[in-house]
Design the sequence.
C-alpha cells in the first residue's frame, strides 16, 4: 500500500488535526425486510465486517494516501479496555500520530450495533456514554502547540460522535491559526451547528443526502439528490459565501458547490460489498486532493474514485486503499482521469 506520488515540498497542507468518534461496532444481518417492531424478536446472524467510527475512517485514508511527510493527528478518547487499545494500535500502524488519543477510565470505547435488512437498508444503535462523549476543551488546549507549529498550513477537521462544544473549540483554534476548517455533522446535530454559527467558521462542509435534506428541511425520500444539493448549498452559502460544499448520494453520485457552481460526478460502477464508510472516504479524498494541490473540482474526482473503491470491501475501512490500488481500480473501471489526478496515482 503506497502513498500518492507527491514530493513533500509540493504539499499545500502539511497536517490534519481532527476530533471525532473513535470506536468500533458489529454488523448483524436481520431476516426479513419488515421494519423491526418495538417489542419484536427477530432472527439473524453476525456479519464478518469490521466497523470503525468517523474520525478513524477519515484520518486513516488521509494518512495512507499522503504518507509520512504529512502529519495526521487525531484528538480523541477511548476507554481503558481491549477495544480502545486495539484501535490505538491500529491507528499507529496505519501512520496516524496517536499522542493525543487519551484512554479514559470509567467510560467504554464508543460502540455501535449495526443491523442490516436483506434489501440493504438498516440502522444502528450507538452508545451515548462512551469515552468520546467526555472530550472537552482541555483536549484542544493540549494540542494547541501543534496548531502553532503548522500555522497556515494545516487542516482542522470536526467530525461527529463527540460533543459539539469540543468541535466548536477545534474550529475556533483552526481559525486562530489560519487552518482550513472542515466539518461533517450528523443529521441529529447539523441544525444545531447551523444555529450556533459553526457553518460560518468553515471552509468546507461535507454532507450526505439525509444530512443535506435535514438542513434544507426537505424529505430525502421525496426529492431528487440534485434538488437537495442545490437547496442545502444555497442555505449554507447564504451564511458563508466562501464555503465549499460537498454532498454524497450513494449510487446517484456526488455534488460539490464552489462559488455558486453546482458540479455533479456520477458514481463509478463497482462490485458493492458495503457502502458503510463511503461518505467518510469521500471526504478524506477531498482533503487529500486539496492537500496535494488539486483544485476543488479535481479533488472531487479523486474523492469519487476513493469512495467507489472503498465499497468493494465489507469493512468500513478498506484495508488495501493506496496509490497503486486506486490506479488499478480506475483502469479496471474504465474511468477517464484528469491528468492531474492520474499524475498523483502513477
Sequence:
Amino acid at each position: 500500500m503506497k502513498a500518492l506520488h507527491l514530493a513533500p515540498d509540493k504539499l499545500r497542507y502539511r497536517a490534519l488535526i481532527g476530533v471525532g468518534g473513535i470506536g468500533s461496532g458489529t454488523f448483524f444481518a436481520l431476516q426479513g425486510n419488515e421494519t423491526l417492531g418495538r417489542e419484536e424478536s427477530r432472527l439473524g446472524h453476525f456479519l464478518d465486517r469490521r466497523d470503525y467510527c468517523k474520525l478513524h475512517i477519515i484520518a486513516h485514508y488521509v494518512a495512507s494516501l499522503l504518507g509520512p511527510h504529512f502529519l495526521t493527528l487525531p484528538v480523541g478518547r477511548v476507554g481503558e479496555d481491549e477495544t480502545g487499545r486495539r484501535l490505538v494500535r491500529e491507528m499507529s500502524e496505519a501512520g496516524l500520530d496517536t499522542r493525543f488519543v487519551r484512554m479514559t477510565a470509567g467510560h467504554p470505547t464508543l460502540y455501535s450495533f449495526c443491523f442490516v435488512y436483506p434489501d440493504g437498508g438498516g440502522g444502528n444503535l450507538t452508545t451515548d456514554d462512551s469515552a468520546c462523549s467526555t472530550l472537552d476543551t482541555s483536549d484542544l488546549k493540549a494540542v494547541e502547540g501543534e496548531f502553532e507549529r503548522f500555522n497556515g498550513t494545516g487542516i482542522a477537521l470536526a467530525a461527529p460522535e463527540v460533543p459539539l462544544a469540543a468541535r466548536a473549540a477545534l474550529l475556533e483554534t483552526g481559525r486562530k491559526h489560519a487552518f482550513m476548517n472542515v466539518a461533517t455533522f450528523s443529521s441529529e446535530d447539523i441544525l444545531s451547528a447551523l444555529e450556533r454559527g459553526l457553518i460560518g467558521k468553515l471552509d468546507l462542509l461535507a454532507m450526505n443526502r439525509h444530512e443535506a435534506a435535514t438542513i434544507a428541511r426537505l424529505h430525502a425520500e421525496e426529492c431528487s439528490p440534485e434538488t437537495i444539493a442545490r437547496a442545502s448549498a444555497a442555505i449554507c452559502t447564504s451564511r458563508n459565501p466562501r464555503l465549499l460544499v460537498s454532498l454524497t448520494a450513494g449510487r446517484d453520485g456526488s455534488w460539490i458547490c464552489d462559488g455558486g457552481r453546482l458540479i455533479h460526478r456520477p458514481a463509478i460502477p463497482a462490485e458493492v460489498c458495503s457502502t458503510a464508510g463511503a461518505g467518510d472516504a469521500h471526504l478524506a479524498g477531498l482533503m487529500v486532493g486539496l492537500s496535494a494541490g488539486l483544485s476543488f473540482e479535481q479533488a472531487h474526482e479523486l474523492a469519487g474514485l476513493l469512495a467507489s473503491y472503498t465499497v468493494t470491501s465489507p469493512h468500513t475501512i478498506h484495508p488495501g486503499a493506496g496509490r497503486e490500488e486506486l490506479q488499478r481500480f480506475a483502469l479496471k473501471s474504465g474511468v477517464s482521469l484528469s491528468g492531474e489526478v492520474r499524475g498523483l496515482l502513477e
